[in-house]
Task: inverse folding
């Protein structure tokens, strides 16, 4: 199989001023994942590496730069799934770690459970040697401004698609297929600006934010979390592909079907078991990128597809 | 549409000594739900009423009688879904309330979010007037004994199917269709004996534990939570029905498919939009019951189907 990695950096009304930062950050992240694949490592390690890069980058709503709850705190969540055996790991209501996706990966490999939340996620992370950081160190200026704007003007529960949202669009995700034909998918987010304390979105819910099955393909989604989970967006795309629909059509039909039924927007990235790529969003913008055969394809506006040559790190 | 309600009281290796208590408790619960339907109320109110009855009954692993975490505490979760508009409500990591399903219902009607966990779920419940109770008051003697046995003999993560488990088999759920043809589904659980603090299972994850769509049908599942969520069991059944499979075949194919792929057991109850009933379990036992046309059907062993006359309360 030709190794391929595809990532997204969030769907929504991304302001013009934030386009460049997202595209630059995505190129760094997709290369980080592709480098792992090129070393012969697993799809699972590749999607983690790509998501880790975006969690470190304040241009994305995940890890550092996550949006804030009504109480002004960061509460992050992430999930990762291995298509070979359907094993999954997820965390939610995480406050004190830079990389929720790495804790989620550890849940997958080391816990009898699939999803840990709040205090339990923290206890598990500490036990596994993850270093806690002061929760305030995850808060960016953009995230503070986004909460201030939300408190003045926000329509509750819709900030992922609000036109004035500076911090809310940037859930990140990655899907990869490695040379062995194994598929993995991962998603990480800070949620939505002004969310209630304790709100759990689509990202850690398997079948909503993330899904991977070597027999079919892999998906990561972004957009209005409550709509995505009501529609089980990732699993809907998977089931369409299982029934013979190609990856791009399945992604388009499911995303548009969700928006038509629930009147909110979303986006998704998809790889089929044959390596077909699917990218679609019903929002105004979604940043995405993929690398295959030493070419980086990327875009952020509808219908857009740029191509750069991939230069491996020396 | 002929109003119908179907419920389950949990799948697993239910010991002989617990069969009668479960069947008696299920008859009370299914009648409670059916009485609501007969008054012309919604399917949503009916499934809540049936689940509330089982949350009060220590014969079931939900509400009072929930199993305990490794730390000896109750951490409950529940979800409810309205098929008309796909709206959902869920709570997880709840410690101080007898009826998680009623808080979940309130999340559905009163929150911009779909799932609240831990401290956030508690804050929401208090704000909505739910009365907290001492967490210890939810602990039954059976649950204590189940944890003791688990600590001595338990294989971690498999207690829902352990032969010695006295408290772990009894996740509860209900699916109803009302005279208007609207469908709702609800599920509530204490999880698995000896689970890690902060473990979130399939029950609050939409598409895994619960799903309802007026265009297709409704499902509630029970069994090994981590397997159910990896397989998105409820949504898998829904998608089979959407593609023309009848309710009972869809339930059977999906439950057996999960067990074949993931080597753990589960059960599910299903209603199609046309009122067809589906019941299947791959575990040794699952308690289930439904009422339609003033007849109560019920069973707990494979292939079993008893019938009583339904006598409405005077």
Result:
């Amino acid at each position: 199989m030709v190794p391929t990695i595809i990532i997204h950096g969030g769907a929504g009304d991304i302001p013009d001023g934030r386009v460049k930062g997202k595209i630059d950050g995505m190129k760094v992240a997709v290369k980080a994942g592709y480098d792992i694949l090129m070393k012969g490592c697993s799809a699972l390690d590749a999607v983690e590496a790509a998501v880790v890069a975006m969690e470190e980058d304040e241009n994305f709503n995940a890890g550092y730069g996550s949006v804030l709850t009504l109480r002004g705190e960061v509460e992050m969540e992430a999930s990762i799934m291995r298509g070979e055996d359907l094993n999954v790991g997820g965390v939610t209501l995480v406050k004190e770690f830079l990389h929720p996706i790495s804790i989620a990966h550890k849940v997958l490999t080391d816990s009898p459970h699939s999803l840990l939340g709040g205090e339990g996620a923290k206890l598990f992370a500490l036990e596994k040697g993850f270093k806690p950081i002061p929760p305030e160190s995850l808060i960016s200026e953009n995230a503070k401004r986004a909460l201030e704007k939300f408190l003045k003007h926000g329509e509750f529960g819709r900030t992922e698609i609000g036109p004035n949202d500076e911090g809310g669009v940037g859930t990140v995700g990655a899907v990869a297929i490695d040379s062995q034909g194994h598929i993995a998918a991962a998603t990480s987010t800070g949620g939505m600006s002004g969310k209630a304390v304790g709100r759990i979105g689509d990202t850690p819910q398997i079948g909503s934010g993330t899904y991977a099955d070597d027999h079919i393909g892999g998906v990561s989604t972004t957009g209005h979390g409550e709509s995505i989970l009501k529609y089980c967006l990732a699993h809907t795309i998977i089931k369409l592909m299982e029934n013979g629909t190609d990856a791009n059509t399945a992604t388009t039909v499911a995303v548009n079907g969700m928006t038509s039924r629930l009147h909110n927007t979303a986006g998704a990235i998809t790889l089929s078991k044959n390596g077909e790529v699917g990218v679609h969003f019903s929002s105004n913008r979604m940043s995405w990128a993929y690398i295959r055969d030493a070419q980086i394809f990327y875009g952020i506006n509808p219908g857009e597809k740029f191509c750069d040559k991939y230069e491996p790190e020396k």
